[in-house]
Amino acid sequence: AQSVTQLDSQVPVFEEAPVELRCNYSSSVSVYLFWYVQYPNQGLQLLLKYLSGSTLVKGINGFEAEFNKSQTSFHLRKPSVHISDTAEYFCAVSEISGTYKYIFGTGTRLKVLA
Amino acid sequence: NAGVTQTPKFQVLKTGQSMTLQCAQDMNHEYMSWYRQDPGMGLRLIHYSVGAGITDQGEVPNGYNVSRSTTEDFPLRLLSAAPSQTSVYFCASSSDSSPYEQYFGPGTRLTVT
């Protein structure tokens, strides 16, 4: 079984400051890793994914994440945030066995302050 | 393409009533899933389907039924609604060429009184 932990339920940050949203996972099998963003009253949108290859993954809107297998982490980063980045961010994992079932974290609400 | 559409957007039910949440996609995706989103709990998988005629249970399937008679549609049925089913429901789909890239619908907010 897998689990995903997003320790920070809320992260306030000033505009143009850097931000890191933390994600740790637990799994007895190899997994793929994802970050999704949810803007208010909308569905989720894929930000980036790690399936294989380089452990540094770049996504949309200037976000990137680094897969660290030894620490079982997949933290999301952005060097300079904008007001429009205010949203909820979800980390998720899926077994690579082909079941295509996701386990989501509880989400981190990013609030960018002017 | 409309992508993934869900109807209705909002629904209020009384305990014991039944209803069907509709989900449709026009991208010819093989894989479709239903999730519920509750405060502080993230998204939890209810049921999923890997193709027409094939469905399976997720983490929280109790109280919900699904069927997949066509590639496009994946309805979620609540047979006897309970207050614990008050939630926001999301449908998602993905293609067999990129099965891990899910596209989400806008959600249905359900309240059971």
Characteristics of this structure?
heterodimer; A: 114 residues; mainly beta; six-stranded mixed β-sheet; four-stranded antiparallel β-sheet; B: 113 residues; seven-stranded mixed β-sheet; globular
Count helical runs of chain B.
0
Helix content of chain A: under 10%
| Helix/strand class of chain B | mainly beta
Beta-strand content estimate of chain A: over 45%
Cα-to-Cα separation, first versus last residue of chain B: 36 Å
Q: Give the rounded overall mean pLDDT of chain A.
A: 92
- Order of H and E elements of chain B: EEEEEEEEEEE
Describe it.
The complex is a heterodimer of chains A (114) and B (113). Chain A is mostly beta strands and 114 residues long. Chain A has strands at residues 3-5, 10-14, 19-21, 24-26, 31-38, 44-50, 56-58, 64-68, 73-78, 87-95, 102-104, 108-113. Chain A is globular and about 45 Å long. Chain A starts with a strand and ends with a strand. Chain B is mainly beta and 113 residues long. Chain B has strands spanning 4-7, 10-13, 19-25, 31-38, 42-51, 54-57, 64-66, 76-78, 87-94, 103-104, 108-112. In chain B, the strands form 2 sheets. In chain B, strands 2, 4, 5, 6, 9, 10 and 11 form a 7-stranded mixed β-sheet that branches. Chain B has a 4-stranded antiparallel β-sheet with strand order 1-3-8-7, with no helix packed on it. Chain B is globular and about 40 Å long. Chain B starts with a strand and ends with a strand. The model of chain B has no long low-confidence stretch (mean pLDDT 94). Classes of the chains: A mainly beta (114), B mainly beta (113). At the A-B interface, strand 5, strand 6, strand 10 and strand 11 of A face strand 4, strand 5, strand 9 and strand 10 of B.
